[in-house]
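I have been asked to look over a protein record a colleague put together. Alongside the sequence sits a line of tokens, each denoting a local backbone shape. I have pasted the whole thing underneath without changing anything:
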Amino acid sequence: MSPAEIKESTKREIAVEVPAEEVVRQTDALIQKYQKLARLPGFRRGHVPASIIKHRFAEDIKTEVVEALVPRYFRQEAQKQGLTPVSQPRVTDLHIHDGEPLKFKASFEVLPEIKVEGYRELRADKPEINVTDAEVDEALASVREQHATFSTIEDRALQDGDFAQVSLDGKPTAGEGQPVHMDEVLVEIGGKNTMPEFTEHLRGVSAGDEKSFDVVYPADFSDERLAGKTFSYTVKVHSLKLKTLPELNDDFAKELGEFTSLEDVKKQIHENMETERKHRAEHEAKDKLVAELVKRNDFEVPESLVEHQIDLRLERGLRALAAQGMRQEDLKKMDFARLRAGQKDQAVQEVKAALLLDKVAEHEKIGVSDEELQRELDSLAKQTKQTVEAVRARLTRDGGLDRMKDRIRNEKTLNFLYHQSA
């Protein structure tokens, strides 16, 4: 039996036949099982005749025969024909009758023949990394802001540069959008990130004052809940605060950690910024290498792999939204059909990239050693505060160990492409 190819290069259909004697053997075994368990009026348990069992439970037995034999013989026939399915088979034309072979057709997807070419000619962008003194000073100023202290102002009204500690309630004037409520918020008067209406109406107030006013948010405002809307606020001022920044000297450096001078801090900031930029540049260069690899080696990908990749992308996205505080009822209201459609193009690219990297690894004999896998397991065990044995057992059960090996292999292959492109 040769596989009947459907138009697409990733789809196959095979005809499978299970010998009649195997169907009889499986049916008889199930009848015996039912005889031991069945309770029918007029018969002691375990003594119901086989003929009655066969008649009484005919459909159930037939279903179990199909469930037992179809997967096994499908795998055998696919293996015999040298086919490796990457999707569950869709079974059609099922033929099962007493004394006859069980016959069916199975449609499924396979990987296309992939010939990866041109990967040794790929060239990565490797820009020169520079960190200026001004950028270091700006980062140091941010660290200084994080260590600011606030003292209560008691002898005067609020002025520019001060902070008001407030509670506020806001409602959209047009009725669209959710109300806003915040407690113990610090509002900087005249601050670059403070809406002008807050500065205008809070300048000159004292502790205990209450103000009501409208705030018009621009269409490109960073918070989408407020962007393009007008909110009416009631603001209660609890206290006035004066911000004091620490002096930039060696004493401040010592408070930050194992530093002896401010110059040590600047040096560490410079090194951290340089390392972070190198990592970002390398990551972007690798993304471009993979995109070019896919562009040079186009091929059709199995739809089942694309759907699985869409599932993974949506799962990651939904976890991120939940971590940001989105409620379950809001998550359920999302248009998942539209979300899936929006993820498809990127999922196709990711599947192609993974298959091509696998081929490059195969050509270059790139593998994952036991030591590399053990290091990854040790790291994961430390992160999750579990024993290495428990982590390995869990990953082995759910197939995660193979996925971990694939990820490590892909990373090594990407590193190979990046460094050979120099």
In short: Confidence is low (pLDDT under 50) at residues 1-7. Residues 1 and 15 are 7 Å apart (CA to CA). The chain is about 50% helix and 15% strand.
